[in-house]
Amino acid sequence: DFWWMDWQQGELSTLPGLDPLWWLNHIHFYDLARDGKRPFVFSRWGGLGNHRYPIGFSGDTHVTWSSLAFQPYFTATAANVGYGWWSHDIGGHMMGTEDAELYARWVQFGVFSPIMRLHSTNNLFHERRPWGYNAEVLRVTRDAMQLRHALIPYLYTMSWLNREESLPLIRPLYHDYPDAEAAYYCPQQYTFGSELLAAPFTSPADPDTRLSRQVVWLPAGDWYHFFSGEYYRGDGCYALYGQLADVPVFARAGAIVPLGPKVGWGGVDNPAELDVHIFAGADNRFTLYEDDGETQAHTQGAYGLTLFTQNWRETEMEVTVAVDAKHMATIPETRQYHFRVHGVVNPDRIALQIGGELAQNWAFTYDEETETVHVTAVDVPIHAAICLTLSTNRATLLSRRDRTTETVSALLHAFKLDSMTKMILFVRQTELRKNPAMLNQYELALTTSQARALLEVTQQAGIHHIPHTRHRDLLLLWNNQGLQSVQYRFAQSDEHTWDLAQRYHQEGGVMPRFRAIVPQKRWRGTAVYANGTAVSYQSE
Prior knowledge:
Among the domains are: 4-166, TIM Barrel (Alpha-Beta Barrel), CATH 3.20.20; 256-391, Golgi alpha-mannosidase II (Immunoglobulin-like, Sandwich); 461-538. Strand 24 (461-467) and strand 25 (473-479) form a beta hairpin. The two termini are 47 Å apart. It has helices at 20-32, 65-77, 100-111, 135-150, 152-165, 404-414, 419-427, 429-434, 448-459, 500-503; strands at 4-5, 42-43, 56-57, 86-87, 170-171, 190-192, 196-198, 212-218, 222-225, 231-233, 236-242, 249-252, 256-259, 273-279, 284-290, 304-313, 316-328, 334-342, 349-354, 357-358, 363-367, 372-381, 386-391, 461-467, 473-479, 487-493, 504-510, 514-517, 522-528, 534-538. The radius of gyration is 25 Å and the shape is globular. The protein is built from ten helices and 30 strands. It is an alpha+beta fold. Helix 3 (100-111) packs parallel to helix 4 (135-150). The strands form eight sheets. Strands 5-6-7-12-9-10 form a six-stranded antiparallel beta sheet, covered by helices on one side.
């Protein structure tokens, strides 16, 4: 079905400047198309222009956390030269030390990668099977792989957009937000298609919080956590803490994400059932693309298009679905739709029309915890348009519940900390949000990482270190609420200069709303909260 070129071809050719890998990819790609099927080759980087012949293989990665942490940056920035279909050896290829948590986090990154491919060298002690570690890793990676399969309708549509509009699936944020300074300093996050933003966990859980940590910048606008439905105000940074099953993925307001069903195993037929996630708060359109997935018939018009729209008004929203009458090929004659509308209150009125008639035999439920309406319609014919309307008597249909209390509870549940102290801190968490100095009473009970987690979540301010991406070191400072009580210090020295006035540099003051610092030589950066807790990073 495909050729895998893996460096056996050498690096020289009789045509000056032509890498033989580039030429081999070209020849094999068009040779594989002679039987009417769609060709692809699997290859290492063949140079500029090789984006025409996907899929790419990024080489033999080491089994380390630093290798995983580099891959989101590497994959997203490849879009700068149009190379959108990188694949990596999920789990790492060789060397390093096998680790169950590292494996699970790598699989989760694989779900939100262009190509998901698990691989390692032939070593008895490398393990890439989901059942090869423990029950928790099996559960987490099985759910991740089933999610990847469910994402096929969305991924396939993004593949079509890449073909038609040269928009890679994964891109750095400065592609969509070129005027935002922060977009150039968030190398471990990226847009995942037109509707989502992903920032997978790429570092191990802290031994005291027992949680993984990732800092995410959300562009201006309104955002929702894709899995929990929690609302986030954009134009700010957030420290995310998560259990092994958690993955930081966000949907912008208005987003429409069609998924297939979660199945136990395989199958790539266009699904007879769709699980459509709609995130309230803005108008939007999403066109789902489908074809036979194998032949060149799509070039002759044999494909299907389904248009989803969200029409937003403050107290009412309308979701419509209509198949393009000119492009119905490969779409199932009937299809079951599940609509999951996120970020809304329990509506006072809800109506569903199919083919212009009020629908029969359908049901809806409301989940207060996730602020989500779930609507199921059974067996909708291909020619029948759907119109779902939700409305409320309140001032707004939006929910946007403040979940800080729930987040603090989740942190405390995870902490390696005695239960009495956990209970006291939970009872006083409202006071903590207003007066972080009250944490001083628990200085002997809390570790620095535990205090940092509580303060980052309740104060929405902090400092974060990102090593070995575009820059050797990168420090992010953020203070979403502009709190005067959160301070910072930064110092660095250049011992290779004879100019004593230039050898040492120190600055500090109120933590800025956002600032990126690229340190040089020896350095140390520190965030200081109102209670005196100091969080520092420094050069190695």
